């Protein structure tokens, strides 16, 4: 059974070996040829460029909006209470890194570098501020674990931008689109 999923297809084969006493269920996945099952009706390149732009904006919006809070005393105090060294210097610096990374991704100018800046911001923040494994209160531990996992998923999103770049509607893609016209 083949399912078209954007640019790759996944074949799903379910086998159910049965012996006399135990029923075992195993699921095997295999990746099919990358362009074998692409449907031209579902992929519309003219509209996809707007989807990529919207995705870049939505991904970066949280970093853009939260970067300004890194210059406030409560944010610096919170980071210091969590054990961040030189919080009065590092927290505003992280706000600058976060702001530049977000703007780079939104505008599509050097978006791969902007994504690396977001990763540079997220790695220490995730480990130092959301260390849920050190919390004894179950409710607080769940809250920090959710924030930790959110940051891990955002690192994954940034790594996708590092690999694929910003797409066609971006400042960094202006020269290549002129050359092809």
TrEMBL record:
Protein's membrane topology: Multi-pass membrane protein
Pfam families recorded: SURF4
Localisation: Membrane
Keyword Transmembrane helix: yes
Classification via InterPro entries: DoxX-like_oxidoreductase (IPR051907), Surf4 (IPR002995)
Membrane-crossing segments per the record: 50-69, 89-107, 114-132, 152-171
One cellular component (GO) term of this entry: plasma membrane
Keyword terms of this UniProt record: Membrane, Transmembrane, Transmembrane helix
Name assigned to this protein: DoxX family protein
Species whose genome carries this gene: Flavobacterium cerinum
């Amino acid at each position: 059974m083949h399912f078209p999923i954007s640019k790759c297809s996944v074949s799903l084969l379910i086998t159910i070996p049965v012996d006399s006493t135990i029923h075992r269920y195993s699921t095997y996945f295999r990746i099919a040829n990358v362009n074998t099952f692409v449907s031209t009706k579902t992929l519309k390149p003219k509209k996809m460029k707007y989807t990529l732009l919207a995705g870049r904006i939505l991904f970066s919006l949280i970093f853009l909006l939260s970067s300004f809070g890194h210059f406030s005393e409560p944010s610096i105090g919170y980071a210091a209470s969590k054990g961040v060294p030189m919080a009065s210097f590092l927290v505003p610096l992280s706000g600058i890194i976060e702001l530049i990374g977000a703007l780079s991704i939104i505008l599509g100018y050097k978006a791969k570098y902007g994504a690396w800046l977001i990763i540079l911001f997220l790695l220490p923040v995730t480990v130092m501020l959301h260390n849920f494994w050190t919390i004894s209160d179950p409710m607080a531990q769940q809250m920090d674990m959710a924030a930790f996992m959110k940051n891990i998923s955002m690192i994954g999103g940034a790594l996708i931008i590092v690999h694929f770049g910003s797409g066609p509607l971006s400042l960094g893609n202006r020269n290549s689109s002129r050359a092809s016209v």
